[in-house]
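Response to reviewer comment R2.3. The reviewers asked that we include at least one raw input/output pair. We reproduce the pair for Glycerol-3-phosphate dehydrogenase [NAD(P)+] here without editing.
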Amino acid sequence: MENVTVLGAGSWGTALAIVLAENGHNTLLWTHRVEQAVEINEQHTNHKYLPETNLPNNLVATSSLEEAIYHSNIVVVAVPTKAIREVCEKMLAFLEKKVLFVHVSKGIEPNSLMRISEMLQESLPSDVIEEIVVLSGPSHAEEVVLHHPTTITAACNNFAAAEKVQDLFMNQYFRVYTTDDVVGVELGGALKNVIALAAGISDGLNYGDNAKAALITRGLAEITRLGVKMGGNPFTFSGLTGMGDLIVTCTSVHSRNWRAGNMLGKGMKLEKVLEQMGMVVEGVRTTKAAYQLSQKYEVPMPITTALYEILFNEKEPKIAVDELMIRMKKREIDDLQ
Ligand SMILES: NC(=O)C1=CN([C@@H]2O[C@H](COP(=O)(O)OP(=O)(O)OC[C@H]3O[C@@H](n4cnc5c(N)ncnc54)[C@H](OP(=O)(O)O)[C@@H]3O)[C@@H](O)[C@H]2O)C=CC1
Ligand SMILES: O=C(CO)COP(=O)(O)O
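Raw output as returned:
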């Protein structure tokens, strides 16, 4: 059994900490909120993020980042993309040994256009990084804590590190695969959030199942087109971390991105939507990054571009959809290169 630290006590960090604790690992969950650490340790609940879940008694929380980092040389980073650099900077003071980092965040940083593993590499000295493993796939926290069967993929250039993470998390309800396609896994996980926002908008407009199937399928086409150009393996995009996660995020009521899109489609303004969600909606910032990537790599991404116009240039969702439908005729199957 291992000592493992999880950074970030939102829905996903807490759900993963539960999996690890249930697997018998000595798990310490770090939150930047003192009162949340007290609640987890004394009530064994996390009412804000997983209101109906009782946490296992052996899951301990702390609000001391120093204690969290000293606890272990396996650190799961489960904060939203926009908090990654801040948390890395705070960690720096306490990192004295090599750490196996596992990251589970699904975003791309606007402007720098970095994937999360690139952000970690840039923010932390190389001599404290044993490896960086990405854990990604169709996995809503709300279902994992109910022990509903879930599959996910651990990605690292070094298969031994990916297999170590596979062994840490795998159990009867949580099945973990491995791959060495870090680029494909990170891009699939981040870009599906953009398409899920669009699917939510379509549902908010009551456009029905044909439209949603079109968004999922053509969304996958544009994710794959960009992902392959950036070095991802084409097969990764039809796997768990590509199509799998795209399906779950575009169709599940648990999805924050779908729910945010749904409110936008019903006419609510972005600011109000984000205020009402109270949880991270990664797809918003990632839409900006994806739009910038499509320009940088000269890859047509019509759904992403339409969503960019809705989110950042106040285009009416209905007009954006009309414009998508009347674009120039084209063949369905792209040349991915
Ligand atoms: N939820 C899910 O089912 C899944 C989520 N993910 C990914 O996991 C990542 C985290 O998502 P999720 O857990 O859902 O997000 P939540 O919004 O549920 O929780 C985010 C957590 O991070 C904390 N946080 C935010 N900013 C900082 C900061 N600067 N320093 C320290 N802690 C901070 C929040 O604290 P506070 O309460 O103070 O805001 C909160 O505890 C995202 O990238 C998401 O895409 C991946 C798979 C599944
Ligand atoms: O990535 C997820 C499920 O695999 C979570 O998606 P949301 O952030 O849209 O809830």
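Residues 190-325 form a domain with the N-(1-d-carboxylethyl)-l-norvaline Dehydrogenase; domain 2 fold (CATH 1.10.1040.10). The mean pLDDT is 97. Further pairs are available on request from the corresponding author.
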